[in-house]
Specification:
Layout: E1 3-9, H1 20-34, E2 40-45, E3 48-54, H2 58-66, E4 71-80, H3 84-100, E5 106-113, H4 122-136, E6 141-142, E7 149-155, E8 159-163, E9 166-170, E10 179-183, H5 189-199, E11 203-210, H6 217-234, E12 237-243, H7 245-254, H8 260-278, E13 283-285, H9 298-305, E14 312-313, H10 321-331, H11 334-337, H12 344-347, H13 359-369, H14 372-380, E15 383-387
Parallel strand pairs: 5-6, 5-7, 10-11, 10-13, 11-12, 13-14
Antiparallel strand pairs: 1-3, 1-4, 2-3, 4-8, 4-9, 7-8, 12-15
C-alpha cells in the first residue's frame, strides 16, 4: 500500500525559545495518543513535524490533525531531493493532479527557502515552477490575488511541495498550560469556554450540578455528550456530577427568592473550588459573558467570584451571543446544547432575579442560609465519568 507524508506546521510553538522542545514534545504526545493503534511514523525536523502513514489511514490522520491544539496547519506533502529539476518534476505532478480534480485554472506558487544554501531564492523558485507549470499546462493562469489553488514549496532538509494547506486549531498543545475545572451546564456558552481554554493548552475537567428529580437523566446525558464532544479536541475529560437538589431546595426555602440565582451560583463556585483543589486544578473556568444574563452583570460576578478559592477564567467575558453560537456550531456542541432538557439553574430561577445586588447584604443573607454542611456533603457524593478521544467519533 502507498504511504502518505504529512507536513505539520506547529505555528506558535516556534516562538517558545528555550522552552520550544517542551511544547513540541507535548504536541507529539497528543498526536501519539490520538493515533494509538495506527501504524505511523512521526518526527520533528527544522521547524516542522512530519507524519508518514499508509494511505488507508489518512482519514484518521486528517481528523487527528484538525482536532489537536498546537497545530497551525497541515497538508499531505510530496518530498524530493533539493534539486531544481526534481522540484519541477514534483510541481508538474501536483499540477496535473489538481487539474484532473477540476480545482480550477487560476494558481500561484508560494516558496519558502529555509535552507539558504539552496541555489535559487524563494522568488526564483516561485517564478521557475510557475513558468514550468504554464509551459506544461497552457490553460493555467497565474493569479496572485485570487487563485483557485496554491502550490507551496518549502526548502528545508529536503524539498517539500503541497497544495492548499489546511488550517489547524492553532493554540498550544494540551498539557502545557496547567489544569482547569470547567463549570459545565447544558447550555451553549460553557462548552465553548472549555474549548477555548483547551486550545490554549489547558487540561480540562468539568463539574456539572444535577438536581433530580427536577432535572432528569436526559439533562445529565446531554452534559455527558458535551463532555464527550470536548474530549475529541481537548483530550480526556473527567466529568464530576454533583448532587445539587438539597442545596437548591434549601436556598429556595430559607432565602430571599429574587436572590436565589446568585445564591445558587455562589454555592456552585464554592463546590467547584473544593473539587478543583482535590483534583489539583489551578483555576475554575466559566462561560460567563458580561451582561448576558442577571447573574453575569459586573456586580453579580463580583459577588459570586468571592466564593471561588481559585482564579476564575472567563474566556467569553467580552463576546456576544452571536459569536458564541457560531463558535459552538464550529466545534460541534451547538446541536447538543439546544436539546430541550433544562438544567438546574433554569428550574430554580426567580422570574425577576437581582441584576445590581448589594454584596454586603447578599453576604449577610448567605450566612443565614446555613448550607455549609450541605455543600460538604455534596462534595463527598460526587460521581465521576471519564471521556476520551474516540477514533469512531465524527
Amino acid at each position: 500500500m502507498n504511504e502518505v507524508l504529512y507536513l505539520i506546521k506547529p505555528g506558535e510553538l516556534t516562538l517558545k525559545g528555550k522552552n520550544r522542545k517542551f511544547f513540541e514534545d507535548r504536541l507529539q504526545s497528543s498526536i501519539h495518543r490520538k493515533l494509538e493503534g495506527i501504524p505511523f511514523k512521526l518526527w520533528n525536523r527544522s521547524g516542522r513535524m512530519y507524519i508518514q502513514v499508509e494511505e488507508g489511514f489518512t482519514s484518521e490522520v486528517d481528523r487527528c490533525l484538525r482536532t489537536t491544539p498546537g497545530i497551525a496547519g497541515f497538508a499531505p506533502t510530496e518530498g524530493c531531493e533539493k534539486d531544481p529539476t526534481r522540484l519541477v518534476q514534483k510541481a508538474l505532478e501536483l499540477g496535473g493532479m489538481v487539474l484532473r480534480k477540476g480545482r480550477g485554472k487560476r494558481f500561484k506558487v508560494e516558496a519558502r527557502r529555509e535552507d539558504k544554501s539552496f541555489t535559487l531564492t524563494s522568488y526564483q523558485i516561485a517564478c521557475t515552477l510557475g513558468a514550468e507549470l504554464q509551459k506544461e499546462y497552457p490553460e493555467l493562469i497565474v493569479d496572485l490575488h485570487n487563485p483557485d489553488w496554491t502550490l507551496y514549496v518549502e526548502i528545508r532538509d529536503r524539498g517539500y511541495l503541497y497544495v492548499d494547506s489546511e488550517r489547524g486549531l492553532r493554540g498550544l498543545p494540551t498539557g502545557t498550560s496547567g489544569r482547569g475545572m470547567l463549570l459545565l451546564s447544558g447550555g451553549i456558552d460553557s462548552p465553548v469556554a472549555g474549548f477555548l481554554m483547551g486550545v490554549r493548552g489547558m487540561v480540562i475537567e468539568a463539574v456539572y450540578f444535577h438536581s433530580p428529580p427536577y432535572t432528569g437523566e436526559q439533562a445529565r446525558k446531554k452534559v455527558e455528550s458535551l463532555s464527550e464532544r470536548l474530549a475529541q479536541i481537548t483530550g480526556a475529560i473527567t466529568l464530576h456530577v454533583v448532587p445539587f437538589t438539597e442545596i437548591q431546595v434549601a436556598i429556595r426555602d430559607r432565602g430571599v427568592w429574587d436572590e436565589a440565582t446568585l445564591m445558587n451560583r455562589a454555592a456552585m463556585m464554592r463546590i467547584a473550588s473544593r473539587i478543583a483543589e482535590k483534583r489539583k486544578s489551578h483555576c475554575l473556568i466559566t462561560g460567563e459573558s458580561l451582561g448576558q444574563v442577571a447573574s453575569q452583570t459586573i456586580e453579580s460576578i463580583g459577588f459570586t467570584n468571592g466564593f471561588a478559592d481559585l482564579p476564575v477564567l472567563r474566556p467569553l467575558i467580552g463576546m456576544d451571543k452571536e459569536w458564541i453560537m457560531e463558535k459552538a456550531r464550529e466545534i460541534g456542541t451547538y446541536d447538543i446544547s439546544i436539546l430541550p432538557y433544562e438544567d438546574c439553574c433554569s428550574l430554580f430561577s426567580p422570574p425577576h432575579p437581582l441584576t445590581r445586588p448589594n454584596p454586603y447584604i447578599l453576604q449577610k443573607h448567605w450566612e443565614t442560609l446555613g448550607i455549609e454542611e450541605l455543600l460538604e456533603a455534596a462534595v463527598t457524593k460526587v460521581e465521576r465519568k471519564r471521556f476520551t478521544y474516540s477514533k469512531l467519533h465524527k
